[in-house]
Specification:
about 350 residues; alpha/beta; Quinone Oxidoreductase, Chain A, domain 1; Rossmann fold; 2 domains; 7-stranded mixed β-sheet; 10 helices; 16 strands; oxidoreductase; cytoplasm; zinc
Length: about 350
């Protein structure tokens, strides 16, 4: 019966180029049932992230897998031990990488990693936020341990992407840091500046020279969000002694020895870690999303929606994956409704 099944977009082969119609395709699957701490969410909108494309290309499967983690929707049912939400609540979340994703009509999410959707945003606008907000918040406050720093600066490499767009806002609105973003295209530079960056430099040109032209000798923090291996030597060069480097991408090799001379600390950020390992502080992600929701509704943070690709369909998702693989994304790509 239709009410016991749902539409989902899946992949079953990881070696297909995204232009191949079988790389992502639609099928009917059983409607999931919530576990003790789960919310069953009727999904309204989703966002597509680089991790979606990485998993599709690098994770072989033995049965069709649903990708996607960012979602907004309405809670339809709750597990027996749920206390934070009730049916009818509007939520947003980034899910767990070890569970089925959000390219579907329904999804399950542990209540400890979901938040109340900002009521001032549309479903599409809200769907752009969870994964990148969690990544940026954890990177800035849990990994780099930035406080109310004075006379310090942060360099955000790849400030125009999904994580960079929200990290720029958090750093400029919630700290006293001087925020320097990197960009290479005029439209992205304007976007990053509008989000609160104090300065923009071109990541195709030497970092040190551009910083000196701004009167900045070096920086206390670097958030390297993309192409870390390409910029690694420059990053070390512009970091202060005892500076801090946070990384989220997947460099082939990252040799920590060059950091020793300056006693630079290296911090990895992966927002899936807490849910993957069911850490004792897993509910911090609920708290972060609730705080992000409040900041959005107070007008202090804005959605990083870049492009709306229409309905949630295999064709539109293939188009979104192709754009992400081109590394020319500004903000987030969202899709809405089936």
């Amino acid at each position: 019966m239709r009410e016991l099944s749902m539409k989902a977009i899946v992949y079953s082969q990881n070696d297909l180029p995204i232009i191949n119609e079988e790389s992502l395709y639609e099928m009917d699957l059983p409607k999931p049932q919530p576990g003790e701490r789960d919310l069953l969410v009727k999904i309204s909108a989703i966002a597509v992230n680089p991790v979606d494309t990485k998993v599709r290309k690098n994770s072989p499967v033995t049965e069709p897998r649903i990708l996607g983690w960012d979602a907004t929707g309405i809670v339809e049912a709750v597990g027996s031990k749920v206390t934070l939400f009730k049916p009818g609540d509007e939520v947003f979340y980034a899910g767990s990488i070890i569970r089925p994703g959000s390219y579907a009509e329904y999804g399950l999410v542990d209540e400890r990693i979901a938040g109340k959707k900002p009521h001032t945003l549309s479903n599409a606008e809200a769907a752009a936020l969870p994964l990148t907000s969690l990544t940026a918040w954890e990177l800035l406050f849990d990994r780099l341990e930035v406080g109310q720093s004075n006379n310090e600066a942060i360099l955000i490499v790849g400030a125009g992407g999904g994580v960079g767009s929200i990290l720029t806002q958090l750093a400029s609105k919630l700290t006293n840091l001087t925020v320097i973003g990197t960009s290479s295209r005029p439209e992205t530079s304007e976007w990053v500046k509008a989000l609160g960056a104090d300065h923009i430099i071109d990541h195709r040109k030497p970092f040190a020279e551009q910083l000196k032209a701004l009167g900045i000798e070096n920086v206390r923090y670097v958030a390297s969000l993309t192409h870390t291996d390409l910029h690694y030597t420059q990053i070390i060069d512009v970091l202060k002694p005892q500076g801090r480097l946070a990384v989220i991408d997947d460099p082939n090799i990252l040799d920590a020895m060059p950091l020793k001379r300056k006693a630079i600390s290296l911090h990895w950020e992966l927002m899936f870690t807490r849910s993957m390992f069911q850490t004792t502080d897993m509910q911090r992600q609920h708290e972060i999303l609730m705080e992000v929701s409040k900041l959005v509704d107070a007008g202090k943070l804005q959605s990083t929606l870049g492009e709306h690709y229409g309905k949630i369909s295999a064709a539109n998702l293939r188009k979104a994956h192709a754009l992400i693989e081109s590394s020319k994304v500004k903000g987030k790509i969202v899709l809405e409704g089936f």
